[in-house]
Design a protein that fits this description.
The protein is built from 9 helices and no strands. The two termini are 45 Å apart. 18% of the residues are buried.
């Protein structure tokens, strides 16, 4: 192999590294910009996330508490960082798309783009469902244990760690139909598999919902279980329709 041939082979790899570096830098810059924007509105974000708990706290005690002098400052940084990633996520996903696009066929490009769009929509939908539906019921349940001799002293770190975790879990749970769609279309599992084990899936969904919403209230359990069961069925329906469309084409 001549030196020129070796150099020609190395050029594409070097170009890939340069392209990857460019996309990473652009992504980091977008996250930094998102962080700065989110930090400017950090108090509004704080109030927005605190609202579900504040509405169910007893009168005269609608506050969160901090146990360290710098705790609020670091909390606002944490909230701004998480919100900054959320704000920048469309641009970051776009950078990932620009990096992998040249290696994809036209059909794969359409599939990947739809995957990103639907994945983002399902995640946001799940997070909003958790915020507006699940949070109020969970918080009401836990605060129901407060008695005349028990008063809640909730710290900002404990509360916001719980909120961020629950938002993440809610968002990921709503990715169920997308995960099913991928498994079916990669021929890892079949539509018949999901149909055959539907009963077991429903039991698993109810158990997961019970863990996420550890209340004795059947309504709260149903509020999370029913949407997930519907999403499970939607995953089957979408996969069947997609396979039929592929056959037609």
């Amino acid at each position: 192999m001549t030196g020129q041939e070796g150099q020609d082979r190395e050029v594409p790899f070097i170009e890939h590294i340069k392209e990857l570096r460019k996309r990473l830098i652009n992504s980091l810059i977008s996250i930094l910009i998102g962080f700065l924007i989110a930090y400017y509105f950090s108090e509004d974000i704080f109030r927005f996330l605190f609202k579900p708990l504040k509405e169910v706290l007893p009168e005269g005690n609608k506050n969160l508490y901090f146990t360290g002098i710098a705790q609020p400052f670091f909390l606002f940084l944490k909230l701004a960082f998480v919100a900054g990633i959320f704000i920048a996520s469309p641009f970051v996903l776009y950078q990932i798309w620009l990096f992998i696009r040249p290696a994809l066929y036209e059909k794969e490009r359409r599939f990947t783009l739809l995957f990103v769009l639907f994945g983002s929509a399902f995640f946001i939908g799940g997070a909003l469902f958790g915020y507006f539906i699940v949070f109020p019921n969970i918080f009401s349940f836990f605060l129901g244990f407060a008695k005349d001799f028990l008063s809640p002293i909730i710290t900002i770190d404990d509360y916001f760690s719980l909120v961020i975790s629950l938002l993440l879990i809610s968002g990921l749970l709503f990715e169920l139909p997308l995960i099913m769609f991928i498994l079916i279309n990669l021929d890892i599992l079949s539509v018949d598999f999901f149909r055959r084990y539907r009963r077991y899936a429903i039991v698993t969904i109810v158990i997961v919902a019970a863990i996420v919403t550890p209340t004795t209230d059947a309504i709260t359990l149903l509020l999370l279980s029913i949407p997930l069961i519907l999403l499970y069925e939607a995953g089957i329906v979408f996969s069947v329709l997609y396979k039929k469309l592929r056959v037609i084409r």
